[in-house]
Every structure is written in C-alpha cells, then in structure tokens.
Design brief:
The chain is of the alpha/beta class. Helices cover 37% and strands 17% of the residues. The strands form 3 sheets. It has an 8-stranded mixed beta sheet, sandwiched between helices. The chain has a two-stranded antiparallel ribbon with strand order 2-3. A two-stranded antiparallel ribbon has the order 9-10. It starts with 12 loop residues before the first helix and ends with a strand. The structure holds S-adenosylmethionine (SAM).
C-alpha cells in the first residue's frame, strides 16, 4: 500500500485530461455568485517540479503537458522553449487550440510566469487558483509524505480557513462535507487505484454521496487498463446516475496501445505504461460536452503515440 507518488506522473496525458475537465467544470460552476465547496478526495502533494528528480525519472510529462505545449515538435523542456522539431505537425495540429485546451494551458502558464513549465500544479492548486474568496476547498491526502508536502505547499498560500487539509481517508470521510451550507459543491475523486479495492470504494463513496447530496457535481478519474474492475467502473457509475435520475458525461482519452511487446533482437519485454484514462461526471455542467467535443480530437492529434490513439465522449443527453 502507498507506493504511488503522483510526482512521478504529474503532467502526464491523464493529468491533461483530468485537469482540462476540472478547469472547464469549475469555470462554469464559478459563474454563479453563491459559494462553492470543492472536495478533493485524493489531493496528492499539490505542486510538482517537472525538472525535479521524480518527474525527470519517469519523463511522463514529456508525453503529456510538455508535448501539448510543443505543438507537434519535440517535447518542450521543463526549463524553457521547445527543442527543434522532430515530428512534422499535422494540419490539424496547426488549427487554433480548442478553448478548453487553451484555458488549461493558460492556467498552467499562470504557475510559470517566467516561461517554461518547471512547475506543474496538481488539482489542489488548480482549484485554489480559480476559487473566489468566499469559496471553500477541502483536501484529503493519506500518504504521510505527500500530506506533509501538501500542508507545507498550502501554508504558503496563507489562505486561512478557505482551505482545509485533512490527513484522512478520502473514501471514508469526505462525505461529511456533503451537502455544504451553500448546497453547491464539486467533488473530485482521483484515487491512485493502487489496490483493486479502490474501484469498489469509488462506487460505495458515490452511492453514499448521491444519497446525501444528489445535486452535487461529481468527477471521477479512472485508468483504462486491462483489468475487469477498470472496465466495470464507468458502466456502474452510469447505472448509478441513471437510477438516481441524474445526468452524466463520460470522456476517455487513449494515447497508445495497451499491448505488452517484445523486442525481437534483445527479447526484452516492453510494458507500455498507462495507455488511456477516463473521466466520469455526474451532474456535469451543460457547457462541458461541447468544450470536450472540440478539445478531445486535438488531444488525440497532439498526444497520440500510435494508431490506437482515440477518444470517446458520451452523455445521457
Ligand atoms: N488529484 C491529484 C491531482 O490531480 O493533482 C492527484 C492525486 S493522486 C492520483 C492520488 C493520491 O491519493 C495520492 O497522493 C495518494 O497518496 C492518495 N491516496 C491514496 N489513498 C487515499 C485515501 N484513501 N484517502 C486519501 N488519499 C489517498
């Protein structure tokens, strides 16, 4: 348990999908004046260095946010502009960026005012950056090291009572904030799925959350990997939303094949890493689907690594 550290994965293609959806959803929810509470059940460390040891070791951001920024050229360096082109940009890559992607990149840019992409904000910092003074943010993080780092990062914001960091089980205790006093909330559920029981715990959490607060907006990230629980999760969430009479939206992004290959010469086995992920939302903003319909084909175009790259976008309406 607890070997997952998000610092190795920060800014990868899954973060690009998750954070693009998160920002587009928040932008809409924040149009209303009434206070919003955001509950981040699996918060991570909050801020990441893309030029640091963790991200440097895994290089996942190079296939995510850095590739997106490099506009079809070699992945941009965390420290500065893109290296010379190694891949000719396809015509679609030259089209203007879809609004949701442009907005995502502009938020990431806000954390890097001197240019480059040294700093990658995790969900807590993205959310805090967008919230207004009267909104609230509840952050759950159980990993002792990440919780300490999150605490220290959040302390620097001097946000006072606007943000609460809880070293508690997000699955088990985040529903205590539902419904919030203003009866407006976004819950982001982004577990590491290190243990296959996480899939069932997501469903248990969602069932309880919908019982307590049926009108909240819920966003669940999940990995698309060859595991039955991963394939069942969106199907079960869809059934749950439908039974509750709630609207839903399901978006996926695949960047490469999930096949394990063998190098003919060396015989070495190559595991592809995370090939795809999805976001499932209950009570999504009505503005989200058209934004994603424009953004997802561009994400496939720009982040796709082989001919398996694809997206899907489905909703109840
Ligand atoms: N939401 C973050 C973001 O977008 O920047 C990334 C979160 S990461 C995928 C998942 C985090 O959940 C890890 O930092 C892990 O330590 C933490 N975690 C795992 N199980 C947890 C639990 N039961 N309650 C709260 N946090 C947990």
């Amino acid at each position: 348990m607890f070997s997952y550290r998000h610092a190795f994965h920060a800014g990868n293609h899954a973060d690009v999908l998750k954070h693009t959806v998160l920002i587009a959803t928040l932008d809409h929810l924040l149009e209303k004046e009434a206070a919003l509470t955001v509950v981040d059940t699996h918060a991570g460390a909050g801020l990441y260095r893309l030029d640091g040891d963790y991200a440097g070791t895994s290089g996942e951001a190079a296939e995510g946010v850095l590739r997106l920024l490099s506009d079809g050229k070699a992945p941009a360096s965390p420290a500065g502009p893109a290296k010379p082109a190694i891949k000719k940009a396809a015509p679609e890559a030259e089209a203007p960026l879809a609004d949701a992607i442009a907005r995502y990149l502009s938020v990431i840019g806000d954390f890097n005012p001197k240019g480059g992409t040294r700093v990658y904000p995790g969900s807590p910092f993205i959310v805090q950056h967008l919230l207004r003074d009267h909104d609230k943010l509840k952050l759950f993080e159980l990993h002792p090291t990440d919780a300490r780092t999150l605490d220290a990062n959040i302390a620097q914001l001097e946000a006072g009572r606007q943000i609460a960091v809880l070293r508690e089980d997000g699955f088990g205790s985040a529903t205590k904030f539902l419904p919030p006093p203003s009866r407006r909330a976004l819950v982001l559920m982004d577990p590491s799925y290190e243990m296959k029981t996480d899939y069932g715990r997501v469903l248990d959490f969602m069932a309880e959350a919908l019982k307590r607060f049926a009108t909240g907006t819920y966003a669940v990230w999940y990995p698309i990997i060859p595991r039955p629980e991963a394939h069942d999760l969106p199907r079960r969430l869809k059934t749950m939303a439908t039974k509750a009479g709630k609207s839903w939206l399901h978006a996926t992004l695949t960047v490469k094949s999930s096949k394990i290959t063998k190098d003919a010469a060396s015989g070495a086995t190559h595991r592809p890493g995370l090939p795809a992920s999805g976001m499932f939302l209950i009570n999504p903003p009505y503005t989200l689907k058209p934004l994603l319909a424009a953004a997802l084909p561009q994400l496939v175009q720009r982040l796709g690594q082989d001919r398996n790259a694809a997206f899907s976008l489905d909703s109840d309406g």
